[in-house]
Design goal:
The chain is of the alpha+beta class. The chain has three helices and five strands; from the N terminus they run H-H-E-E-E-E-E-H. The strands form two sheets. It has a three-stranded antiparallel sheet with strand order 1-4-5. A hairpin with a 2-residue loop joins strand 4 and strand 5. The chain is elongated. The relative contact order is 0.13.
Length: 103
């Protein structure tokens, strides 16, 4: 899992767990919750794609937390946020949407 700051002007720089904690962006528990959620959601998406003969290469999620500090997924899970291959060939996001929702 890689974590980045959402900052287009700076190229969405990478940041470590320790950096996030030291900067007061999140607690160690929040980071661990994000990591666990990422692994669970990725497994669900990868399994769904595999049933259609597709291989998930990577995926991007955006997380935040509420006023009580509970971590939550704050963005959609969409074809434009992942790289998927079929038979070794990259599938463009629009094509992926068509393949995924095909009966």
């Amino acid at each position: 899992m890689e974590t980045t700051f959402k900052n287009d002007a700076k190229g969405d720089p990478l940041v470590t767990k320790d950096g996030l904690i030291d900067l007061g962006v999140m607690t160690a528990k929040q980071y661990d919750d994000i990591k666990e959620m990422t692994q669970k959601i990725t497994a669900i998406v990868a399994d769904d794609l595999a049933q259609k003969g597709l291989v998930l290469y990577d995926i991007k999620f955006e997380f935040g937390y509420d006023a009580e500090g509970k971590v939550m997924l704050i963005d959609e899970i969409a074809s434009g946020n992942m790289r998927v291959y079929k038979d070794g060939q990259y599938i463009e996001p629009m094509t992926l949407s068509e393949l995924f929702f095909k009966n």
